[in-house]
Amino acid sequence: MNIDKFKQEHVDLMGAVTVLREFVQSGVQENADAICKQLILMTATIKLHLAAEDRVLYPALAGADDPFVAHVGQLFQQEMGGIAEAFAAFASRWNLPAKIAASPAGFKDEANTIFKALHTRVQRENKELYPLAEMI
């Protein structure tokens, strides 16, 4: 299975996280508008990526001849639900510049938590899941 598009989306997503972190480091209140716009763009990107995984990647893994590959794919898909829900809740809570500017420390703390989880997930997919997908 060719998963180059999924890999590129991970690169793009991590680049978007870097941009968001730069805005945050330059000042949450001062950059609340830019942070909010970046978060909205990231949310759309993540939703599209997850939808593609659900439509293409996970069904391919589930249909793999190797039961180990199918099992790992199922585990990753189940785990993703929690991360996706957490990110959606985060994005919903911080969907307006005024909300971000009103609680810079709260935003930073929650952003650090969610983006650490997202980074860990991307790394695991790159190292554990995608090599299996490339075998089928």
Properties at a glance:
Hemerythrin-like, 5 helices, Hemerythrin domain-containing protein
Task: Describe what you observe in this structure.
The protein is mainly α. The chain has one domain. 87% of the residues lie in helices and 0% in strands. The protein has helices spanning 4-25, 32-62, 67-93, 97-102, 104-135. The longest helix has 32 residues, at 104-135. The mean pLDDT is 93. This is Hemerythrin domain-containing protein.
Q: What would a concise description of this structure say?
A:
Residues 3-133 form the Hemerythrin-like domain. This is Hemerythrin domain-containing protein. With 136 residues, the chain is mainly α.
Give the SSE layout:
Elements: H1 4-25, H2 32-62, H3 67-93, H4 97-102, H5 104-135
Number of discrete domains: 1
- Helix-strand category: mainly alpha
Low-confidence parts lasting 5 or more residues at pLDDT below 50? Answer: none
Give helix and strand order, one letter per element, not per position. HHHHH
| Oligomeric status | single chain
